[in-house]
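Re-run with default settings, no changes from the original entry. Doing this only to confirm the output is reproducible before filing.
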Amino acid sequence: MNQCVCTRGRNAKTGGAASPHDQIDQPRTISPPVRAHKTQSPIPPPPPNPQSLPKTLGRQPSPVAAAKMQAAAAVHRPHLLAASPLRGRASRRPSTVRMALREDGPSVAIVGATGAVGEEFLRVITARDFPYRSLRLLASERSAGKHIAFEDRDYTVQDLAAPGAFDGIDIALFSAGGSVSRAYAPTAVASGAVVVDNSSAYRMDPEVPLVIPEVNPEAMADVRLGKGAIVANPNCSTIICLMAVTPLHRHAKVSRMVVSTYQAASGAGAAAMKELELQTREVLEGKAPTCNIFSQQYAFNIFSHNAPILENGYNEEEMKMVKETRKIWNDKDVRVTATCIRVPTMRAHAESINLQFENPLDEDTARQILRAAPGVTIKDDRASNRFPTPLEVSDKDEVSVGRIRQDLSQDDNRGLEIFVCGDQIRKGAALNAVQIAEMLLK
């Protein structure tokens, strides 16, 4: 086996994984969507009798709470959108640049604008005609000054650390890693912005809602434009999993879930995607693969997810799925276990999911439930052996479900097996964040 050639130092603890905000050095144009997406489904109503998220009492305010108090004292900026303008629009040709610039829209900032998810934010804004009256692109000092062309305008990337970076911002979409979110999200909140954070920094903070709009929109009931707050985007694997599982959970109540993930390069950022391409060429040419992002060969290989291993033997990615599922479902008793694996695909994750239910659920009923679920499609052709693949869901909004079958090890139709694929950059990150922002416009 070829030995990796490492050209720079890496973090020994994490194995050197890059985050989705890895910078891309050359200026570029953000192109409009290149394929048609299904008309977005309206956000479904919350399930009956939703329970509120845990409250925190009798302790010193967290940085999030402190920032909220500062925001409450700030001057309120009136917002003119009385209702979401996104419903009922006629579809347009995918080659058309969609101009979402409007005077009555919110002022939007994108933090990590030069990274993989930052670029996808822009594509999703265009694809969904998300309205904005101004757009501010923010990144690290090394990326400040770069130019990005978007919707017939040229934008200069600004330094995130500059004074007043969030002045006048209504919604700030963050995807620049946990350390950046911890450092700058409170500043944005203190300026009155609602932060939608794609990192893990605030996901388990009991004061911060953790939201998948199709799953638990009620968690955002108290979040309003003009009142600084943070809303957390779940982990990409959690989003893709719960998009498929939650409709079944509402019908039969999941008591135990076993997940095995097959995660793409995009989860480690733009640099990891580039390295996978480079390594593939190198290995095919008989060269030693360049390993700057991971500590081992990625092309033509699979390995345990590169997140740090914890004392219990699970890695951080696996524990995210456990903890986030419990918080999103507001169910501390649901049993979840996960094994997360890196596979050499480019930008869509796959997951094998085994479900155990409290109540019986047969596979035909499960198909009916999933067909009606927003943001979910079914590909389950046993005769042709055709089921979801990462390649087919790349650049698509929907999560695809297949291999729907009874778990033969469970009695009384209380077990089900499914296989799920979803685009990690899109629904697993950027699309979910923009959908959260859309909810703020209602």
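DSSP finds nine helices and 16 strands in the chain. The CA atoms of residues 142 and 159 lie 8 Å apart.
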